[in-house]
């Protein structure tokens, strides 16, 4: 009888552990996806769709392929090496990890100010309150999540639930906007024009900076790493890209439906005008909810991942990582509340972000074939080639973008 009870208890614990593992893997995918889908993501998609119309479908298709190539490289090497991104970079070239961490954290901080601002604007649309008050409320919710005993599990649930809500809301607006589906499908395969700048910009916005490392670092923190877990990590990395891409596709079709009807989007807030024209007052409120969800989930992703790039530099940072994450959120909120969104900082961060991906992905590709880092693991050649193409393309765009921004900064 005692053995039966013991057996039942062990089975229950095993089942519980399996469910927790599955939630963590799903949460890591949604953490990455919702980190990518920030307030800037909404505006960017609306603007490109209005410019390229149905041909933007080709840009999305091409960027999905490149995003998957970049993310598969990063997540697999993080898993196999059991190292954070900065530690991998340091193993490739001593000191490189410090450079990578510096740019990741500075970029993450700058974008987090925009994320918290976007969330504040979302509450303004929904409830008519001052965006600064909305930003403070949003920050308080994020801090509450990281103060909880099971902060990792709470974060996983939060991004999963809110990410799912965002997909449903945008999906509804896409349906009521009645986009020309046949034209969109046709031009996705045979575009009228191919905008390489748009492709690389979308790739940088989806897997640039801290974003592509967010889910990989989450899995590492949860102990889901090693060559024996490569298949699960691979599935999670692809799923994360697909979730972000579904949001992009739904939003693209929603915008296409509106602009195809002859509506000119409001240049000051193109995404909001899409929702309002498609579904009236209800659509505008949906936009507020989507903007808030995009903002708060990106705040969570940016804070968590940015601090994870500092963990290995001092034991105290890892020991008090929650305090560092909370401080990161508080600082971003205070800057927005008292200074607004500092345009120069955001412009510079956007330009530098274009150079972060080739730097981080380049170090990952070098590590992928270094036995001291990955042991006997054999990295697929096609992934290396894919990654190398992305490094070259994003380096070119990053340098051009940075040079074009210089006159605006000085």
How would you sum up this structure, described in words?
The structure is a single chain. The chain has helices spanning 2-36, 39-52, 56-81, 85-92, 96-127, 131-147, 151-177, 181-189, 196-207, 211-221, 230-260, 270-308, 315-319, 321-339, 343-367, 371-374, 381-409. The protein is mostly helical and 410 residues long. It has a single domain (27-409), classed as Amino acid/polyamine transporter I. The longest helix has 39 residues, at 270-308. The N and C termini lie far apart (79 Å). The chain crosses the membrane at residues 25-46, 52-70, 91-113, 125-147, 159-176, 196-215, 236-264, 284-310, 322-339, 345-368, 380-399. Keywords: Membrane, Transmembrane, Transmembrane helix. It is a multi-pass membrane protein.
> Whole-Å distance between the termini?
79 Å
Oligomer: single chain
Radius of gyration: 21 Å
CATH class: Mainly Alpha
CATH topology: Amino acid/polyamine transporter I
Helix content: over 70%
Question: What's the domain count?
Answer: 1
Mean pLDDT figure: 88
CATH superfamily label: Amino acid/polyamine transporter I
Low-confidence stretches: none
